[in-house]
Amino acid sequence: MSLQGIKARIAAAAEQAGRAPESVSLIAVSKVQPDDRVRAVLDAGHRVFGENRVQEAAGKWPGFRDAFGPVELHLLGPLQSNKARQAMELFDVIHSLDRLKLARTLARLADELGRCPDLFIQVNTGAEPQKAGVLPDDADTMVAECRALGLPVLGLMSIPPVDEDAARHFKLLADMATRNGLSGLSMGMSDDFETAIAHGATHVRVGSAIFGAREPA
Ligand SMILES: *Cc1c(COP(=O)(O)O)cnc(C)c1O
């Protein structure tokens, strides 16, 4: 477990970019990790975690929250409408708002529940057919439509194509956020979080660099 090392690298990258280290939130991505590794990071005092699947998160986080107190939980993976209610009850932030139909479902449930997680709209900056997210050309409209629904949109999220220069995608996303008046930028993972911070990331999602490689279940 190398939580402290990652935090130090985040602080250094922030300072190099002329930013306050506190302006970058570290989301420890605990998907598929064995419980003892997650517990070690909780024991070290970290309280911001990310998961990809509602079902998996529902299986482990109520117990961890009972044992460790409040934990800020972020949903990073695709969300099916039929899991939206459960996701809204479990997560504090959802990074994978990727279509208008889901936005409408979240708005309806927010009325019903009287609360709504903070939201990031996921943008498929590489326009990859297999990847979730709105296309770059549709992002401005999606932001406007989500705002019209009264949803708390914090910012934009993206997962750049693996075989491309991530910096270009981070810049594209940052420009998109700026022109839409959004301050949140969820970008950067184990291999590129320092580059993401240089381009303005406010939320970096780091899994394997903290917990070690994910082993298949
Ligand atoms: C798994 C995952 C991460 C973390 O990836 P690492 O390479 O282990 O840091 C970040 N964001 C999303 C959306 C993920 O699915």
From TrEMBL:
Q: Which domain of life is it from?
A: Bacteria
InterPro entries, alphabetically?
A: Ala_racemase_N (IPR001608), PLP-binding_barrel (IPR029066), PyrdxlP_homeostasis (IPR011078)
The UniProt record lists the keyword Phosphoprotein: no
| N6-(pyridoxal phosphate)lysine: residues carrying this PTM | 31
Keyword annotations from UniProtKB, A to Z: Pyridoxal phosphate
- Gene3D superfamilies linked: Alanine racemase (3.20.20.10)
Alanine racemase N-terminal domain span:
3-214
Annotated Pfam families:
Ala_racemase_N
Q: Which GO terms describe its molecular function?
A: pyridoxal phosphate binding
Its function, per the record, reads: Pyridoxal 5'-phosphate (PLP)-binding protein, which is involved in PLP homeostasis.
Family named by the database record: Belongs to the pyridoxal phosphate-binding protein YggS/PROSC family.
Q: Per its record, how is this protein called by name?
A: Pyridoxal phosphate homeostasis protein
Classification from the root reads: Bacteria, Pseudomonadati, Pseudomonadota, Alphaproteobacteria, Rhodobacterales
